[in-house]
Structures are given as C-alpha cells and as structure tokens.
Amino acid sequence: METFQQNVKYLLDFCFQTLQLIGMEARTIQQNMLMADVFKALAHPVRIAILDMLRTRPWCVCELAGELNISKSVASKHLSQLKAAGLIAVEKRGTLVEYRLIAPCILDMAACTERTILENKRKELERLTTTTTTT
Fold this sequence. Notes:
Elements: H1 2-21, H2 26-41, H3 45-56, E1 59-60, H4 61-68, H5 72-84, E2 88-93, E3 96-101, H6 105-134
Antiparallel strand pairs: 1-3, 2-3
Helix pairs in contact: 3-5, 4-5
C-alpha cells in the first residue's frame, strides 16, 4: 500500500511539474487537481447514491450499507473517498459515527449537467428524426 501511495505522489508531483513547465500557474494547477479529485469521487454510482442520501440527513455507515444493499466495508470505502474529496464530513457522538453532506451544491451541479445532456440528446434525436423523415 505504501508503494502505491508513493507512486501516486510521484505521479502527482510529475504532473504538477509538467503543468508548470507549460506555463500554468501553481494556483490554477491546484484548483484543477482539486476539481479532478471531486470528479473522481463522483465517478461511481454508489457514491452518487450516498451523496443523495446524505442530502436528506446524516447517516451512519450501517444505515447506508443496509439501504444500498452493500457491505459496511464497501460503504466505508466509498465514504472515505467522498471525505477525501471534501464532499462529506464525519460527526462522532460517543460510539455513533455519522456522515453528513457538506457540499450539497455538487448534487445541484450534477442535476444541471444531467438536464443539459438529456436536452442536447433530445434535440439531436429530433434533428436526426426530422432529417430522416424529410429525405
């Protein structure tokens, strides 16, 4: 595991240096890397479902796992990725550990993106249908 983390750090450092060589400012590079981490965290349907559930209220890992019909260990791994991306926070109350959404705007962005894509696909389908029927 440590070797993997070392390789990831090396690759990130290499990417950072390469981007600096082509003239990107360090702040822009860091912003892009942060955004890439957020998009990686969104790259799994279970994590999106978890975010959607956390929009309503804080949940513990066992509740999320049960609701999504996945093991607690799988749910924990997904929660770790969402936490690392800065999308959720952990609240500990005694022995109870709950997760809550701290960036609900990410779901609004996803909904906006979905609407835009579907609308563009609908328009393209209409265009193709109109072109096919007129020829």
